[in-house]
Amino acid sequence: MTVLDGIKAPVKTQLEAFEQSFRKSMQSNVLLLDNITRYILRRKGKQMRPLFVMLSANICGGINESTFRAASLIELLHTATLVHDDVVDDSNERRGFFSINALWKNKIAVLVGDYLLSKGLLLSLDNNDFNLLKIVSEATRQMSEGELLQIEKARRLDIREDVYFEIISKKTASLIASCCACGAFSAGADASVVEKMHSFGEKVGIAFQIKDDLFDYEKSRETGKPNGIDIKEQKMTLPLIYLLENSTFIEKRRIINIIKNHNRDVVKVAEIIQKVNQSGGIAYTRQKMAEYRQAALDILHQFPESPSLQAMEQLVLYTTERKK
Fold first, then answer.
1. DSSP string spanning 149-173?
2. Is residue 3 a part of any domain in this protein?
3. In a designed cystine with 269, which of 33, 228, 249, 319 is the match (CB 3.0 to 4.6 A)?
């Protein structure tokens, strides 16, 4: 049994039932669409978002039919954004599988994303889940704003630390925050508890993204060397921002020049990774991740002890200690 299997144990039955209801929510009478949604379901990930929803609901009162709809709504809207993201990024792969646009081209991919979005909206409207829809729609708005803010700032490579946290709060943390808030609301929690779970999820999401950004500067299990992918893609993450903010004007100009004009030069990318390490950027980033993780756990520990609370605590640790 994996670590994640152990975390899922308190809601294992509910997650299995969710799988069935989610498959049903994606069905269509159009054969092409049905084939594509089946393909999407076959390459699903680790069920992290439904897991956050289910555990949050259990912590705040218990899982019910509304909880299943909340998890389905989040998965439908999130899957729609991923399909659209692959079109925007001109990406041919996602998690080792061909993307929808790679197999069926951009026009169909955009329409599939729109279909999934509409299914999520209708699922909520048909069941009068207006508050759940409001929570998730707010997260979707923030995700779009975060992506656009990152694109705007990446052009000049002038992202400061506060802007970085604003971007990851919107792009990544808002979705995990909505998972936790929706789980709490579906269980009948009052507004203050829903807000508390939203804050918890936001802090977990920030810690999760910081961990993701650290991978670029850690040794790959395949090559034994750091990937440097974010540098090649001109992504300004916290370790690099720390280096730039603690460099002289001339050093800063040289680093930015490499990122802009020599980001495919393996030697120069390796040089920046080394500078990040020497500057203390990795240690600083790990410290920030630990601070957000502890802030999330502090909120979680305000709730009564239960198997689901213990599992959520382990899930927080898993998100920041994972190897990939």
1. HHHHHHTTT---HHHHHHHHIIIII
2. no
3. 228
The secondary structure element, H or E, covering residue 253 is: helix 249-261
pLDDT band, residue 222 (cuts 50/70/90) = very low
Give CA–CA dist 13/9, Å, rounded: 8
Contact of 164 with 27, CB cutoff 8 Å: no
Per-residue model confidence as pLDDT tens digits over 250-279: 888 888 888 888 778 788 888 888 888 888
The 10 Å Cβ neighbour count of residue 238 is 24
Domain count, the chain: 1
pLDDT, residue 221, reads 45
Digit-coded pLDDT (tens) for 113-151:
888 888 888 888 999 989 999 999 999 899 989 988 888
Q: What is the mean pLDDT of residues 57-86?
A: 89
Angle between helices 281-300 and 266-279 (to 10 degrees): 60
CA dihedral 128, 10, 184, 320 (to 10 degrees): -120
Residue 288 included in any domain: yes
- For residues 259 and 157, the answer to whether their CB atoms sit within 8 Å is yes
Check pLDDT > 80 for residue 59: yes
Res. 223: pLDDT tops 50: no
The secondary element (H helix, E strand) that includes residue 97 is strand 97-98
Burial of 27 (0-12, 13-18, 19+ CB in 10 A): exposed
For tokens 């790679």, name the residue. Answer: 102
Q: Which run of H or E residues covers position 8? A: helix 3-8
- Cβ atoms within 10 Å, residue 4: 15
Q: Which domain, by its residues, includes 287? A: 12-306
* CA pair distance 79, 13, nearest whole angstrom: 23
The DSSP call for residue 280 is T
Does residue 319 fall inside a structural domain? no
Amino acid (1-letter code) at residue 259: I
